[in-house]
Structure formats: structure tokens, C-alpha cells
Amino acid sequence: MKLLLLLGFLIGCNAASTRQERRFPDDFLFGTATASYQIEGGWNADDKGENIWDRMTHTKPNVIKDVSNGDIAADTYNNYKRDVEMMRELGLDAYRFSLSWSRILPNGLSNKVSEAGVAFYNNYINEMVKYGITPMVTLYHWDLPQKLQDLGGFANPLFPDWFEDYARVVYEQFGDRVKHWITFNEPREICYEGYDSTTKAPILNATGIGAYLCAKNLVLAHAKAYYAYKNDFAPSQDGQCGITISVNWFPPLTDSKEDEIAAELYRQAEWGIYAEPIFSAEGGFPKELSEKVAQMSMEQGYPRSRMPEFTDEEREFVRGATDFFGVNHYTAFLVSAAKDTEFIVPSVYGDTGAVTSVPDDWPKSASRWLTQAPDSILNALTHLNNKYNSPIFYITENGWSTRVEDGLEDDDRIRYYRAALESALDVLDAGITLKGYMAWSLMDNFEWMEGYTERFGLYEVDFEDPARSRTPRKSAFVYKQIIKTRVIDHEYEPETRTMTIDEGK
């Protein structure tokens, strides 16, 4: 018995030691992420054009929880050197940020390029490159030029041409230094929330139609920008181009057939209509959801399906048009078949016939939609890896919100990040090709419809200070230690709250 106990003790110690010693590879990219409208400010600086968030927050300010806007935000337009200093303090390998389309092309079209806008991004990128930080650039993070929205935006069949023109300008200006391109950030939030609903600009509320129309034009635009890069720029610039899709995990509530079907339809509506055309072997919109929408459209009296079809040529053009799969992941929801729930008719989620729930014991953030779900990164990436023939992945966003009054002591964020990164190590252990992780966010910013009431930053921003001073939270020191050691030490406590730059990195 004593021998068995000793063996058990040694095995347990070895397992704990092995878990503690799991390391991220040296070439794994650790970074943070931000978006142009959320941090830049300078909304009308120089000759920058108006975008859809400028228009909405200025004409309908009450749609924002605290009636705020991004006119100044964190004022990165004037503080970009401090931003890069923060990146150096953390020891980041990479920084993911987005370009403001209307800062570069004030009218949205490529006939006029802003010298001031190009200069700002050149300065920002050069400052990163100077210190060995890899820029990962998103072409579009929700801030469409208003002049293009006036012409229909993503609903206009000419949108893919406009986007390709913009992308070519950007590749030409910055591609000698930028080797990681992302075309679109979170198509669901663009198409469903902005076009099908009222939870993001331009709040069109074209329910049951807007998301599907937007989705087709968006993936066509992505493919045009991708092939423009691969054919005309990558041979000399030697970079890669992909897309970022929000993929939270949606398992069935029970193992019943009804809940399993509901969960699959829900996944297809959430991210499948954007991922399937690009990453699947067949291309086009997801088969099951397409059939369901066609059936419901007929029952609702439409002469044709509310979901447009791809021509054979379009299907082939989009299929495979990517070098990697960027995944924004935050949480999970349990999915079940709806019973007597009333849906808006028509609607995307009415088409799925599914509802979601969250267990009471999952830790809650300051955001009503964000809870800490167990193993959700591993579950989501395993599903994607199996479904789409093992693409290259980057986690391009993952983060946790706190309240304004929570200040610098953010132990709940630290708990969340450590659990998420353990799940990322599980992904690597499973043999899935995960090449990087971008924490959301480098600093507090304008959190869309929630204004400044929710904070995601590793650095706290004082929005009452005209200088927009930035101060590291406790989580910043913990993340810095993980990046430096490539190990998650659950016992690590920062000895000091003074952030310095490690010149030896």
C-alpha cells in the first residue's frame, strides 16, 4: 500500500510538473489588439473623411450607453509613440491594429489618397518595426466611409470592387513592412449587428435579409483583396493574408438530436456563413442553413430565398482564398431547440430555431455577453480544425471586461487570461497549428455601443485627462511575464507595479 501511495504521489507530482512546464514555442507570436475607431480619435484631423460611427454617434448619440463617441477616444493619433512604448514594456512580439479606411481614402474611393493619413500610419508602423514589433494589420474593423454607406455599403454589389481598390492602396503604401494582413474583422458583427439589427453602425435593422446580402458581398470582397495581394504584391513583399471571424463556442445543451441540430444551425448562422465560403471544400453558404432559409422564405411568402446564392464562378473564386484563419474568441453559449420562443420574423436566429443559455456558475464579466467558459478555445479550434482541413490559426482577439470602478486590480482578468492560455496550450498539444495570440486589448478604448462604461485594457486609460494617460493594470505585468518566460505561472505575483522596458528582448 505504501508503495502504491508513493507511486501515486510521484505520478501526480510529475503530471503537475509537466503541466507547469508546458511552454509556448519561441516563434509563437504574443501580442495585443486594437481597432482604429476605438483608439485613434482625430475624427476630423487633416482631411480624414467621415465614417459610419462618426455619423451615428453625432446624429444619434443616445444609442451609445453613456452618450459618448470616439472623437478623441484614447487619442492614439497624437499618442502613437506612447502606444509603442507600452508594446515594448510588455515585450510584445506583435501588435494587431486596424486602419481607418476614411483616414486613408477620405471619400472612400481610391481617386484621392490622404497624404496625412498615410503619414500617420507610416509613423506608427515605423515606430513598431524600429523596436522589432511585428505589425499585424486589419484593413477593415467596422468603420466604413459614410460616403460608401450612402451608396448602400456592403449591400451594394460594387462593394467588392471598392474594397479591392482600397486594399491595393494600402498594400502599396505599407506592404514593404507589413507581412500579416487581415481583410475583415468579425463579419458577423458587420453584417448581422450592423445590417440585420441595431447593435452596431449603421443600425439598418434589415432583419432576415441584411446579414445574408452583406455576407455574400463581404466574402467576395475578401477574395478580391486576397488575390490582389497574392498575385500582385506577395511575390515581392512576401507576406500573408487572411480573415478574422468571431468564433465563440456553441455546444448543444443536451445530447438530444433536436439540440444537436439547433447547435449546428446556430454555428452556421453565427460564423458558418462567413467561414464556409472560404474554408470549406465545397464553398458557398452552409448547406443546412441555406435549405432552412429557403424553406422559411417560401413559407413567409417570399418569391425566392432571402439568402442569395453564389454562382459557380463566385463559389470557386472565394473557396480557398486565404493563408490563415484569424479567430476572435471570448466565450461560449449552450444551444437548445426553441420551444415557444417568439422570434422576429424574418430573422437570422428565427431561421435557426435555436436559443442560447449560460450556466449560472460561469464567472461573469462587466459585459452581459461575456462569461468565462471552460475549455472553449480548445473546443472551438478543434471543431474548426476538423471541419476545415487543418488551416493555420491565429487567435486575433481574446479578452475580459471590467467595470470603470475596478481600477488597476484586475485579478478576474488574470484568471481569465491564464485559463484561456492554458486552453491555447491544449490546442498546441493537440497538434493544431496555432501561431499566435493577441490579447484584447492593449488599452481601454471606446467600447462601441457601451461607450466607455466597459474596460478591456491591459492598460487603464484616463479619459478625463486631456493627455489620455495610460497606466498598466496588474494583468499587464502578468501578461509580460508569460511572454517573457513562455510559461503560465499561476503563482506569479508582480513584485512591483513599475513597468519598464526590457532592452534585452
Describe what is shown at a glance:
With about 500 residues, this protein is α/β, with parallel strands linked by helices.
Task: Write a structural description.
This protein has 505 residues and is an alpha/beta fold. The protein has a single domain (29-485), classed as TIM Barrel (Alpha-Beta Barrel). It is 43% helix and 13% strand. The protein is built from 18 helices and 14 strands. It has helices at residues 2-21, 36-39, 52-59, 76-90, 101-104, 115-130, 146-149, 159-174, 187-196, 210-232, 234-237, 257-279, 287-299, 312-318, 348-352, 376-387, 411-429, 474-485; strands at residues 29-33, 94-98, 134-140, 180-185, 240-246, 325-328, 334-337, 354-357, 393-397, 402-403, 434-440, 454-455, 459-461, 470-472. It has an eight-stranded parallel barrel with strand order 1-2-3-4-5-6-9-11, surrounded by five helices. Strands 7-8 form a two-stranded antiparallel ribbon. Strands 10-12 form a two-stranded antiparallel ribbon. A hairpin with an 8-residue loop joins strand 13 and strand 14 (470-472). It starts with a helix and ends in a 20-residue tail after the last helix. The relative contact order is 0.13. Mean pLDDT is 95; it is low at 1-19. This is Cytosolic beta-glucosidase. Keywords: Glycosidase, Hydrolase, Signal. Pfam families: Glyco_hydro_1.
Number of helices: 18
Rg from C-alpha positions? 23 Å
Please tell me the overall pLDDT. Answer: 95
- Strand order, largest beta sheet: 1-2-3-4-5-6-9-11
Report how far apart the termini are.
51 Å
CATH fold category name: TIM Barrel
Structural class: alpha/beta
CATH class placement? Alpha Beta
In helices, the fraction of residues equals 40-55%
How many structural domains does the protein architecture include? 1
Number of strands: 14
Portion of residues in beta strands equals: 5-15%
By CATH's scheme, which homologous superfamily applies?
A: Glycosidases
Choose one word for the global shape: globular
GO molecular function: beta-glucosidase activity; galactosylceramidase activity
Signal peptide: 1-15
Family: Belongs to the glycosyl hydrolase 1 family. Klotho subfamily.
Pfam families: Glyco_hydro_1 (PF00232)
